[in-house]
Design a protein that fits this description.
heterodimer, A: about 210 residues, B: about 130 residues, 4 helices
């Protein structure tokens, strides 16, 4: 009854963002905090996550409020994938680089397809980087067109040159939560905002 | 028809009217075909966010790791619409956008007022 009045308390939440911003590190942090499990491996080489992974019934709570969610860790979204980058910058073999690049293209497609099946997004951005990338802007615009709630996790706040204020100024229409998925800094603040934003009752998303 | 110089980069400035009568699918097919042929397009009216995500998906399907590594794209934020238009569900109007092959065009920086790009040297296009 309370849920019918005050809104949804079960939601499918996607973790989105460009490659190498810490999406899987964040997914691992959330799962470790609430289930004791992890989502997947992380690497400094871009496109480590090349298939979406979904863990169901992750229950997070903050005092009197809670949220039951299915958590989807998605591959990084990019507009270009060059296998030479994996060879030249990260020392992978040619075969491994080509395979990784091919799988990465499939991962991008899969990540975008998942947008049809989620109720809200944690958009992970690297707080040490320029936020005005076309991928960030495109994802946000797409989610706004679908009327899906977006929460921006300004990650890597533990890095010396991090600037969450830049992200807040760039996207004032959405909550921006500075965090370090690596150290766990302010993940409590993230969970509180997730419960608030994703537990809220919303109009049915418009068709695309 | 003039002969193409392999060291020249082709820029095509595409008017709003050119794309206005095309469906989203036709628009994306046109853009991707041009970009795959090494042309850099400046669209007077860009793509909606939904069209942009569809373009990314289509691009990923078209990537051939020896000849086409994807696209570079940069556009201004869509025009702000009025409260009434938003209530009526009218989409935001996209604004000027540059799209090119990623082996030729690099986006350096973009914000609300300026989009900086660079042409990657030593590559030709027609």
């Amino acid at each position: 009854m309370m849920q019918r009045v005050f809104g949804k308390r079960h939601a499918r939440i996607g973790i989105y963002g460009p490659p190498n911003v810490g999406k899987t590190t964040l997914a691992n942090r959330i799962l470790r905090d609430w289930t004791g499990d992890i989502m997947g491996s992380v690497s400094e080489i871009p496109h480590e996550t090349r298939r979406a992974k979904c863990v169901t019934n992750v229950h997070i709570n903050n005092g009197g409020s809670s949220l039951n969610m299915d958590l989807v860790d998605t591959p990084g979204i990019a507009t270009k994938i060059d296998f030479h980058e994996f060879m030249d910058q990260y020392g992978l073999s040619k075969d491994d680089s080509r395979t990784r690049a091919k799988e990465a293209t499939e991962g991008v497609i899969e990540a975008i397809k998942w947008l049809d099946d989620i109720d809200g997004v944690v958009l992970v951005m690297d707080a040490t980087q320029d936020p005005f990338t076309q991928v960030n802007v495109t994802i946000i615009g797409n989610l706004e067109a679908r009327n899906l709630p977006v929460l921006i996790a300004a990650n890597k706040i533990d890095a010396e040159n991090a600037s969450p204020a830049t992200l807040k100024a760039a996207f004032p229409q959405h909550p921006v939560i500075p965090i370090s998925a690596l150290t766990g800094y302010n993940t409590d603040g993230l969970y509180t905002t997730m419960i608030k934003e994703f537990g809220r009752k919303r109009k049915k998303p418009r068709s695309r | 028809m003039t002969k193409k110089n392999p060291h020249e980069i082709a820029f095509h400035l595409i008017s709003k009217d050119t794309l206005a009568h095309l469906s989203s699918e036709e628009k994306l097919a046109y853009i991707l075909n041009e970009v795959k042929h090494g042309r850099i397009l400046v669209l007077e009216a860009g793509l909606t966010p939904t069209e942009q995500t569809d373009l990314i998906q289509t691009t990923m399907r078209e990537i051939n790791h020896d000849s086409f590594i994807g696209i570079e794209i940069g556009g201004y934020e869509p025009e702000k619409t009025s409260f009434i238009h938003r209530m009526l569900g009218k989409p935001q109007r996209p604004r000027m956008t540059i799209i090119g092959p990623a082996h030729l065009l690099r986006l350096i920086k973009k914000d609300d007022t300026r989009i900086e790009t660079a042409i990657i040297p030593t590559k030709g296009a027609g």
